[in-house]
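Objective 1b. Sequence-to-structure analysis of Family 1 glycosylhydrolase.
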Amino acid sequence: MGGATAANQYEGGYLSGGKGLSLADVITSGDQKTPRKVTFKTPDGKIGSRERNEPLPEGAKAYVIPDQYYPSHVATDFYHHWEEDIALFAEMGFNSFRFSINWARVCPKGTKELNEEGLIFYDKVIDELLKYNIEPVVTLNHFDMPTYLADEYDGWSSREVIDFYTFFCKILFKRYKGKVKYWMTFNEINILRSWSQLGIHSNDPQTLFQAKHHVFVASAKAVQIGKKINPDFQIGMMVCYILNYPRDCKPANILESLQFNREMEFYMDVQVKGYYPSYKLKAFDREGIVIKKEPEDDELLKIGTVDYIGFSYYMSSVSDVDAKESDIVIGNQMKVTKNPYLEISDWGWAIDPTGLRVALSKIYDRYQAPLFIVENGLGAYDKVKEDGAIYDDYRIQYFKKHIKEMHDAIILDGVDLIGYTPWGCIDLVSAGTGEMDKRYGFIHVDLDNDGNGDMSRSRKKSFDWYKQVIESNGTKLD
């Protein structure tokens, strides 16, 4: 048990120590009502912005606008607080910590030019974790890439990017051969989309799925490279898993739910089973999508399957073909139908602990592969009392119920669950909205939505609660 973060939401250190510009560095802040935007400059020198999931104008390149606030530039400043933060994780009793390595810090342009100073930073982080007997769990790509690859190669739409990515992976695999055992190739691969995550300038289905094919091949190659360097490496994949129920027994709703769940299962099918499933090939035929493959690609996918399935679980959803606009809510960047049987978070996400047990059982039944819950948590408004205390009992209740369901999935259903790293174990910037008000952590960071604050760390009530949970290996929840 431990916690999870991502470089683009937590690390900061913008352009420090030789780091290059990355996609997250040109994405603005926002909130529940104000979408995040990507800022750019066109070939004729015009400066503009688009919502993060919209395509950029032809020829536009990433651009940082002076006086615009970009949350990733400082985030919650792990770059300067890593010793303090890791000591706090150790105090809680973490035995694992999931974090991502910023591609642009190691390879500033994403090419084969290395930045030794960036590698030295991660040397220190990993050594500090090991000093406290905290297992490093490294995500190789978490919603980010160097902007140079987006500007000059159109991101993952270019097959050349596969070679750049695997070079980056090989450097890390070799450097941390005896220090890091657990790796994940890509974060939430099923919701990678558009320029802000794939670096592609067009959102049409052909470009999107060609880019995702390149991601699949890159992941498979990374698995093979890693296994040659150290056969004991455990290299996994990761999806955003949003369990979906049919609204009722109406056949159309059951079919709709099946289709929704396939949109997650497709990515697991490819990376765990090693091939494109027939239902997706038929969908490509209907939509006129033709994946351009090299002759070796199918074999690469077959032999480059992963060791375990990592997934995030925050909420469940409902399929209802007759849903009205008033029945729709936004959850985890997706439009879903309200479930009348569930409570919702401050951000409208359904709170469904039982759904976690269902999700664990469904995934394990389908793949019979070890599972790793690498994200789970409650984004909420936290109120700081005059004495600095934060009584986040709502967060404790959320985790208590979810951990119980994990226990039942293991003991009653026979699920092979190898780890649990709740999301945002320390407060960080929301990926979806770019705000600080949406807090997940057991540790509070003094920072607001506009970047004001002294970055001081303090323990919430949930800090001591989670400490006792870890000490008891999940048996003491009260």
